[in-house]
Write a structure and sequence with these properties.
The protein is built from 24 helices and seven strands. It is mainly alpha-helical. Strands 2-3-4-1-5-6-7 form a seven-stranded mixed sheet, sandwiched between helices. α2 runs antiparallel to α11, α10 runs antiparallel to α11 and α16 crosses α17. The longest helix is centred in the middle third of the chain and has 42 residues. This is Integral membrane protein.
């Protein structure tokens, strides 16, 4: 519909016919809401579920299935609340540590469609999993850099650094104690990165039971032709997560062991003894073999979605971490062996390790981009974000986030230990962090400067669009007295809502600039051997000053970012509202299962989708009634995913009502293999009826762009007016708010479209005979009382 075309007058919809039992299953969107708000009744009672996710009804509707007169005026509403899956107790603040892991996990699901190109799809998955593995090594290496290099090796080995730090006294070389030898200092400091790896392993294992252990129902029509989200094993990835958890845990432990044993082995190779040198070579060889095994395990198996795979590779998942822990213990014993003449000086050779790791990430991402381009060219879709390169671009951002976190903590600790000196310049008691981290920090001001140009262009474009939309807005409210301020505000909100569609351009530019600057950082580190502020000594004054300014400003920005990160996490731990904000950010990122990184925040959809599928299947199977599942925002994505999991006979008794839905605008463009045009068109064909409500002022939701097909009408309703009334009237004496993404149910079109969907569903089967006294509420077609067992199905 053209923007200048006035919205047609609403078509009169007849009153809903009494065709038997009817249920409206409401699913909220990001940020969540309370059951009382969803049901518009303070007496909401939990029907089934637990404190994390549950279905609620109004107290008066608990036994509605046994009272047919309740369905004469419309469906009985039920509310599925899942907000506690992403925002709960204070431990959720720890999820901020997992942000790079979550982002790289998204890259896995951004693969272009691969129908008939299974090998390329598998290669894409392998490359993403290797990038994810590199992030685990990077985070562990950053912890080793802080604890082993900066604290135990550099500061504890310099009297000027330990004299004012009593907490390092027992490790200080100047004290000459038993722990003062470099190898023993490294062994003590290794407890910190080892504890970090153990914490990640624990979080991944614990959250599996709470979030991802719910098995989806088995459909009657399971076959290879089902869409990916409808496959039996899509929402049950236990086997893969367990394998990846074992591999990443082993990789972290092997990284710590290499940092501990590597320094001792280098010392022994330069000493006279042959036995310690041979032992060091054996340990390093064992660590290299362990690293090869980890890489093979990560590459060997991806997701198995075509069947519900309940197996668990117990030998692998227990043997691999245990062997790595044994190698770490052996490395600690080897490094702790007495070497009286050994002294620590300078820094541990971390530059080479960080440089190789960064270079490896760049190579993997370039290969990933080549595979993505190949897949996209075989089945091009103009609506796909970044022409199929969304996954590689997001993988770059994940690596950048990991680098910023690593560089931030290293820079802050180095600043604390170096006193008045500047880390990396040699004018303080310690040598400072690896040079590569300084080069990466210096690239941040350059990156921000480059982003100013597209940001300014977008701001200008938004202002021009708002000006162009002003007459369009007035034309849509023809017959009302124009108000310049009101018109300008409506047009401005519409124009700002369109910025969502510019996100792919910004992400692409940011990823390209980050990749180039990262390559420049590696080249600068290896080519100059010094920090950026000193690398340009002798160059023109402007260039020299720019390099020094970028290094100083970048170090400050990285440190500030790290402090803000810690502050936000601490506030989220103590403040429920802040924790809820973090949960909103996680609602989109953790919809997808952990397919690439096992330490990513848990996937709430592996709990929510089976919950919804079980509820719809059990209610329609028990009552034979009509069901409308109403999903707002992210809830519409959960609703669609749950419908794909249902058998064909059940889907034919269900109508889908979506509003404020990002199904096409966000998911269809960024995740085309799963929510692209073909999967959504298939859902339109398979579900009995589907209607989508949207507004032009909504920055998240939008049309799904599915035309009429097979006797079914177009999915999209014409865009809803927002605000409903332009100015003051007798019926609306106060200005109506511009709702944007919220309160779709307040629009009269919502009730009309819901009634129309119910009328199009086949009549309900006769209700069962009311049960006799003593029958449980579940058997009676009603509900378990508040505080019931908490099963995820009705």
């Amino acid at each position: 519909m053209s923007p200048t075309t006035p919205e047609p007058a609403p078509v009169a919809v007849p009153e809903p016919r009494n065709t038997g039992a009817a249920l409206e299953l409401l699913v909220h969107g990001v940020g969540g809401t309370t059951p009382a708000e969803m049901l518009d009744d303070p007496r909401a009672v939990r029907v089934t579920g637990d404190g994390t996710a549950a279905v609620y009804r109004r107290a008066t509707d608990l036994r509605a299935e046994g009272e047919p007169e309740r369905f004469r005026d419309g469906p009985v509403p039920e509310a599925y609340c899942w907000s506690n899956l992403t925002s709960g107790n204070g431990t959720r603040a720890l999820w901020l540590l997992l942000l790079p892991f979550m982002v790289v996990n998204l890259a896995h699901w951004m693969r272009p469609p691969a129908a008939g190109h299974g090998r390329s799809a598998r290669l894409y998955g392998v490359l993403v999993r290797l990038v994810a593995l590199s992030l685990t090594v990077l985070l562990t290496a950053a912890a080793c850099e802080v604890a082993l290099d900066l604290a135990a090796w550099q500061c504890a080995g310099a009297a000027a650094c330990t004299e004012d730090r009593s907490w390092l006294g027992f490790l200080a070389a100047s004290e000459g104690g038993w722990w003062s030898q470099p190898g023993r200092r490294l062994t003590v400091a290794a407890a910190i990165p080892t504890a970090l790896v153990a914490l990640l392993w624990y979080l991944s294992r614990r959250t599996w039971t709470a979030y991802e252990a719910q098995r989806p129902p088995r459909g009657e029509d399971e076959h290879d032709g089902r869409p990916a989200l409808g496959r039996p094993g899509f929402w049950y990835g236990r086997r893969l997560v367990a394998r990846l958890r074992a591999a990443h845990t082993a990789a972290g432990l092997l990284t710590v062991a290499a940092a501990v044993a590597g320094a001792a082995a280098r010392h022994d190779r330069g000493a006279d003894g042959t036995l310690p040198a041979a032992l060091g070579r054996c340990i390093e060889g064992a660590l290299a073999a362990g690293a090869v095994v980890v890489v093979v395990v990560v590459c060997r198996r991806g997701r198995s979605e075509r069947r519900l795979d309940g197996r668990l590779d117990r030998t692998l998942t227990s043997w691999l971490p245990a062997s790595s822990a044994a190698l770490l213990l052996l490395a600690a014993l080897y490094a702790s062996w007495s070497r009286p003449g050994w002294r620590s000086s300078g820094a541990l050779p971390g530059d080479a390790a960080f440089g190789v790791l960064t270079l490896g990430q760049g190579v993997l991402i370039v290969l990933l981009a080549a595979v993505a381009v190949r897949l996209h060219r075989r089945a091009p879709d103009p609506g796909t974000a970044l022409h199929g390169l969304a996954g590689p671009a997001v993988a770059v951002l994940a690596c950048a986030l990991g680098g910023v976190m690593a560089g931030g903590v290293a820079q802050r600790v180095a600043d604390l230990l170096d006193g008045p000196g500047t880390p990396g310049t040699g004018n303080g008691p310690i040598a400072g962090p690896p040079l590569l981290l300084s080069w990466q920090a210096a690239a941040i001001p350059v990156l921000l400067l480059l982003l100013l140009v597209p940001t300014a262009l977008l701001a200008v474009r938004t202002a021009l669009t708002a000006r162009r939309l002003a007459p369009v807005v007035e034309a849509e409210y023809a017959g009302e007295a124009p108000d310049r301020i009101r018109t300008r505000r409506i047009a401005g909100i519409r124009a700002a809502a369109g910025l969502t569609d510019a996100a792919p351009v910004l992400v692409g530019l940011l990823a390209a600039a980050t990749l180039l600057l990262g390559a420049g950082g590696v080249a600068g580190t290896w080519g100059t051997g010094t920090v950026p502020g000193e690398a340009f000594d002798g160059a023109p004054a402007f260039l020299d000053a720019a390099a020094e300014g970028c290094q100083a400003l970048g170090s400050w920005l990285v440190g500030l970012g790290f402090l803000l990160f810690v502050t936000w996490g601490r506030r989220a731990y103590r403040d429920a509202s802040a924790r809820r904000t973090i949960g909103i950010l996680w609602d989109v990122g953790t919809f997808w299962p952990r397919a690439a990184h096992p330490f990513a925040p848990p996937c709430y959809a592996e709990r929510a989708v089976p919950d919804l599928a079980w509820r719809m299947a059990s209610w329609t199977g028990r009552t034979g009634g009509r069901l409308v599942i109403s999903g707002h925002s992210q809830g519409s994505v959960l609703a669609a995913a749950a419908l794909w999991q249902l058998p064909h006979t059940t889907r034919r008794r269900i109508a889908l009502l979506t509003y404020g839905s990002p199904l096409e605008r966000l998911y269809g463009r960024w995740f085309p293999a799963y929510f692209g045009r073909e999967p959504l068109a298939g859902l339109h064909r398979e579900v009995h009826c589907w209607r989508n409500l949207w507004r032009r002022t909504d920055p998240i939701g939008g049309p799904v762009r599915l035309p009429a097909e097979g006797g079914k009408p177009e999915v999209d309703h014409p865009p809803l007016r927002d605000p409903v009334v332009y100015g003051r009237t007798h019926d609306h004496p106060l200005p109506e708010p511009i709702l944007g993404h919220a309160d779709y149910q307040a629009d009269p079109a919502f009730a009309r479209e819901r009634a129309a969907l119910l009328d199009r569903l086949p009549p309900a089967l006769p209700l069962p005979v009311p049960q006799q006294r003593g029958t449980s509420p579940e058997e009676a077609g009603g509900s378990a009382p508040h505080g019931s067992s908490g099963r995820s199905s009705g």
